From TrEMBL:
It comes from the Bacteria. The lineage of its organism: Bacteria, Bacillati, Actinomycetota, Actinomycetes, Kitasatosporales. It comes from Streptomyces lusitanus. The keyword Repressor does not apply. Keywords: Ion transport, NAD, Potassium, Potassium transport, Transport. Residues 137-218 form the RCK C-terminal domain. SUPFAM superfamilies: NAD(P)-binding Rossmann-fold domains (SSF51735), TrkA C-terminal domain-like (SSF116726). This is Trk system potassium uptake protein TrkA. It holds the Pfam family TrkA_C.
Length: 222
């Protein structure tokens, strides 16, 4: 998979390193000469250019990319890069970094963003996830398709503890994608039973989140 990353700062280089370790082809783009540190990520391609300019993106051959990541520290730049990647080059997947949570509402499909990642919001969500049992925690928003990645740790008193996945009447527009049980990561099947303490990850429409939380947190009858 070919991935272009706009922004070769600490965030962009870190992402590039992870992708390269997983066998992907990575191009780092930055307009600041001081950001071009080839020795830090030598396996990546590097391009000194302004990612907001069509000529630069032509040089980067953005049309050959499967994914574009707008990872600069400037939300305006990330929005422009996302819009150009989607509308001018038809990139299938555009991921954008949100630096200021107040701008999060802009990072949607109107600006070409498929997935918006807000670091402050994600950090807050991870704190909530670490201390919350029985409460739904929103981890990530998918702009394209109007869905969120949400997590809930199944409480001891949940009526669903001991129930098989296939026997649960899940709300419409929700999908259980992963069960984290201790150190194990399980891909759920209909025969798997839910256990108290399981971390359940769902992709769910925002309108269904409250219904999903109510279903999972309902107490057993005494």
């Amino acid at each position: 998979m070919r991935v272009a990353i706009a922004g070769a700062g600490a965030v962009g280089r870190s992402i590039a390193g992870e992708l390269l370790e997983n066998g992907h082809e990575v191009l780092l783009i930055d307009k600041a000469p001081t950001a071009i540190s080839v020795e830090r990520v030598p396996q990546a391609e590097w391009l000194l250019a302004d990612a907001c300019e069509i000529t630069s993106l032509d040089e980067a051959a953005l049309q050959r990319c499967n994914v574009v990541i707008a990872a600069t520290g400037d939300d305006k730049v990330n929005l422009v890069v996302s819009l150009l990647a989607k509308t001018e080059y038809g990139v299938p997947r555009v991921v954008a970094r949100v630096n200021n949570p107040k701008n999060e509402w802009l990072f949607n499909e109107s600006w070409g963003v498929d997935v918006a990642v807000s670091t402050p919001r994600l950090m807050s969500a991870l704190v909530e996830e670490a201390v919350s049992v029985g409460d739904l925690v929103r981890l990530l928003r998918f702009s394209h398709g109007d869905a969120n990645l949400v997590e809930l740790t199944l409480p001891e008193e949940s009526a669903l503890a001991g129930t098989q996945v296939g026997d649960v009447q899940w709300p419409q527009d929700t999908s259980l994608v992963t069960i984290i049980r201790g150190t194990r990561v399980l891909t759920p099947t209909r025969e798997d039973s839910l256990e108290a303490g399981d971390e359940l990850l769902f992709v769910a429409a925002p309108a269904r989140e409250e219904q999903l939380e109510d279903l999972l947190s309902v107490r057993k009858e005494s």
